[in-house]
Amino acid sequence: MSEAAYKKVSTSERPPERSTCGFRQRLILKDDGAPASITRLKTDDATPHWHAHTHEYYYVLTGSGTMTIGAETFPIAAGDCIWIKPGCMHHAEGELESLIVAVPAYDPADTFFEDPPKT
After folding, report:
1. pTM: predicted TM-score of the whole model, two decimal places
2. pLDDT value at position 117?
C-alpha cells in the first residue's frame, strides 16, 4: 500500500497538552513523517527556552502580549508573524493564541533551557 498524498487533522483529534509555552495542540507532527510541524498554542506561563536546530514561525491568531527574544522584548498582537531562528532564547507572555510552524519538525530533544552558547 502506498503512502497517502495528504494528512488531515482536526483539533478534536489532538487534545491540548501542557508544554513549555502553555497549552498546545500538536496538529502535524514529526512522528507523522512531516518535514515541518504545526502546533496551535494558547500561551500560559511560558518558560524561556531555545532550539539548536529548529526555526519557529509564530503566527498570532488572537490576543496580544509580548515576545522576548534574547534581550529584546516587543509587543505582539493578532496578525503578527515572528520568525525565531535557532540559538535564540525566547518566550511569549499575554493572552495569546498562536499557530506555530517549526522547521524541521519539532523534536523535544532540541529544546534547551540554559543560556545558549556564545558564538
Report:
1. 0.91
2. 83
